[in-house]
Write a structure and sequence with these properties.
The chain is α+β, with helices and mostly antiparallel strands. Helix content is 32%, strand content 32%. The strands form 3 sheets. A 5-stranded mixed beta sheet has the order 2-3-1-6-7, with helices on both faces. A 5-stranded mixed β-barrel has the order 8-10-9-12-13. β10 and β11 form a beta hairpin. α2 runs antiparallel to α3 and α3 crosses α4. The longest helix has 18 residues. It is globular and about 55 Å long. The N and C termini lie far apart (63 Å).
């Protein structure tokens, strides 16, 4: 059977210096089998940089890449030898930790959150050193309470919880929460032919709604699995586009000519945020 040792001595992502998503996809089943055979727990931590878009928008993508590389380095050092950090896609990082239960994983995640929050990046802007502070949100899950096939999606749900509770914190997924996670299905029209795949999680980055958030049109969608974005042209309402990321899972897809229609499953509490985004965008463009 194939073996995985840490740190991973593989081809690394050029921006983050971490093993890329394709290595994570290969390592995960091997590690799950190894830990399962030994009767040991395994933990995943899903990490997202809070308000990452502001670094790119305000300072440019070079600074955004510097922030991502800085955070990635701190995370990898924090789990060295006991686990590995992988670039999941975009600004998301996934950590896999062996022989680690939920409480230990949460403690590690909280330590990572503090280490990143206490760090500072000095960047040169117009010839002057500018200090930047970075915050992250983390979701933790363990095979103590979920199956191996649920490990990543459970830590992703915990990450949602961390974001909804105010960011800059770590949250542990608990199995007794699984049945109370409420979702809402949104109808999305993307006026271009898209390569998205059913079952995948994607981000809506630019979108608008004429009436309510359950029926929207998207102008930019991003697949964090491949770190690729797709854009579409089309009429835009006078109040403009909402530029706020919405994460969800693609279910049913229908392609009609050069148009793509799909069902988009999001956590129900996201709908309230979408109402706020729509209202704020309209007020800002009056």
């Amino acid at each position: 059977m194939a073996r995985v040792s840490f740190p991973r001595m593989v081809e690394l992502d050029a921006v983050t210096g971490l093993p890329p998503r394709k290595v994570l996809d290969r390592d995960l089943p091997v590690l799950l089998r190894s830990m399962g055979t030994a009767g040991l727990p395994m933990c995943s931590i899903m990490i997202d940089i809070d308000h990452f878009k502001k670094f790119n928008d305000k300072h440019g993508h070079d600074i955004g890449d510097l922030v991502l590389r800085h955070v990635s380095s701190l995370i990898r050092k924090a789990v060295k030898f006991r686990g590995e950090a992988y670039r999941y896609g975009g600004e998301e990082i996934t950590v896999l930790m062996l022989n680690t239960n939920g409480a230990e994983g949460l403690a590690t995640a909280e330590r990572i959150c503090d280490v990143v929050g206490d760090s500072e990046i000095i960047v040169m802007v117009d010839g002057e050193g500018l200090p930047l502070s970075v915050r992250i949100s983390l979701g933790v899950a363990s095979t103590e309470t979920v199956t191996g096939s649920e490990l990543l999606v459970s830590s992703d749900r915990a990450l949602y919880d961390a974001k909804s509770k105010g960011r800059n914190q770590a949250v542990l997924f608990r199995s007794d929460r699984k049945q109370v996670v409420s979702t809402t299905v949104i109808d999305v029209h993307f006026p271009s032919r898209s390569a998205i795949i059913g079952g995948n999680y994607i981000l809506l980055k630019k979108w608008f709604s004429y009436s309510n958030p359950t029926e929207i049109e998207a102008r930019e969608i991003k697949d964090p699995n491949t770190d690729s974005s797709e854009f579409a042209e089309g009429p835009i309402p006078p109040y403009g586009l909402v530029e706020a990321e919405i994460r969800g899972r693609v279910s049913e897809i229908e392609r009609r000519g050069n148009h793509t229609f799909f069902k988009f499953e999001v956590r129900s509490e996201i709908i309230d945020l979408m109402f706020k985004y729509i209202k704020d965008t309209r007020n800002a463009n009056r």
